[in-house]
Amino acid sequence: METVQENVQFSEETLRVIGKIIKRYPEGKQKSALLPVLHLAQAEFGGWLSAPVMEYVARMLHIKPVEVFEVASFYTMFNLEPVGKCVLEVCRTGPCWLMGAEDIITHIENKLNIKAGETTADGMFTLKTVECMASCGTAPMLQMGDHYYENLDNNKVDELLEKFKNSHQ
Ligand code: FES
Fold first, then answer.
1. In the chain, is it the N or the C terminus that has fewer CB atoms within a 10 Å radius of its CB?
2. For a pocket test of ligand 1, which of 76, 96, 149, 152 has the largest count of ligand atoms closer than 8 A to its C-beta?
3. How far apart are CA 131 and CA 34, in angstroms?
4. Ligand 1 proximity of 143 Cβ (cutoff 6 Å)
5. Of all residues in the chain, what percent carry a pLDDT higher than 70?
């Protein structure tokens, strides 16, 4: 798990992508590019947004670091602390709750020996609980990376944890 972020600098390729994103907006409105830039920053700098990374993004978009923090701390898809290789985002609201999301969360907590919001000692898994992810018809569900895993039960969760672990060794 990466815990130190010094010499923050986007790669040339990412800078090119960001340049294109910023150009979508009128001069002085660079803040509108904040969400996509934060996604790129999180992907490039170890899966989370440290204070130096948020300051870097703020300088790039000519806004204050606190404005970056306000946005980064509002959305659950952004991590403000180091996370594991596999970030499990379990929906806990509405239909997912009715269909047993609490049991799924408890099962994962017991299995990984962590509480929601924590990361396993080996740095493999982080467990997060999130609001509705628009997959209510296939509740309960979780997101890992770019994929949704739906109609979960404890057996399916066990299989997924094994699969995630094997593919991120
Ligand atoms: S309530 Fe879980 S995806 Fe909608």
1. C
2. 96
3. 22
4. no
5. 96
